[in-house]
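Changelog-adjacent note: as of this version, every example in the card shows the full chain rather than a window. The one below runs 314 residues end to end.
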Amino acid sequence: MGGFLRKEYQFLSEIGLGPRNPGCYINGVWRGGGPAVASVNPANKEVIAEVVEASIEDYEDGMKACVDASKLWMQLPAPKRGEIVRQIGDALRTKLHHLGRLVSLEMGKILPEGIGEVQEIIDMCDFAVGLSRQLNGSIIPSERPNHMMMEIWNPLGVVGVITAFNFPCAVLGWNACIALVCGNCVVWKGAPTTPLITVAMTELIVGVLEKNNLPDDQFISLHKNKGHLLVGELGETGQSFHDVKAALVEGFKDVDGEGGVFLWLWWGKTCGCAGLSDLHDRLVWPWMLVDPKEKTVEQQGFFACVTLLSVGCN
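Full-length structure tokens:
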């Protein structure tokens, strides 16, 4: 793997990556029964390393193992779960710059944004630690004499997090940190174009679990290139595994001019909506920029101040 051997890629070995990496972590071991896919540097189209995808069998085994682990994890007191998440945050701090460089290398963000994305997970870990001591319920008066009602929050069991390439690891932190302190186990399906980030983050997280003698399967990751197929499988299998909850932050494919402009009007207001937009002057006409704005104002009943800009026009 020529790209992996380049001098500027040597830091990858310090976060657990090699030229060829199994893409599925189940039952305490890395495995992959699917085909190998290449992780490509978007800046120069050079192959960085390979990741072996999960097979359907890997996925089924992982879901069963995660459900079993959830029965133990949810019994752990919330403050102790918070302590584990705190340790995950500390582990991220030790590899902050390496992981940030990986985000920049594999996804294409500038280095400060790559580091900032990993920092978001650290911040979420800190937030979740405090939350672990504030998962309060209510004490409610009862109409029956000498009785009261208590409200207690119970874990869902397993939470599925499916992330897109534009935030390859921050979205995991937004959801997984909260899910873990609330007593849930996590299944993470990372973006197909950023498999190395998925592998490196999982290596770090399961390292913390192993150090604390906890079930590794309370956090599993799956890399599979056919993302939409796996989303469907996760939804279908979730029904048989006690309603696995999935948090999706997905991108979108090419749309026509009118649809694209309407999404552009919400740029910056909706996460994942037109995060990367390119409006071609042969596909966009002035009426497209005016009509959707007027429709939005009319439908939602507020004044929207939209400056019509030529964004990415050739």
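Structural remarks: The longest strand covers residues 46-52.
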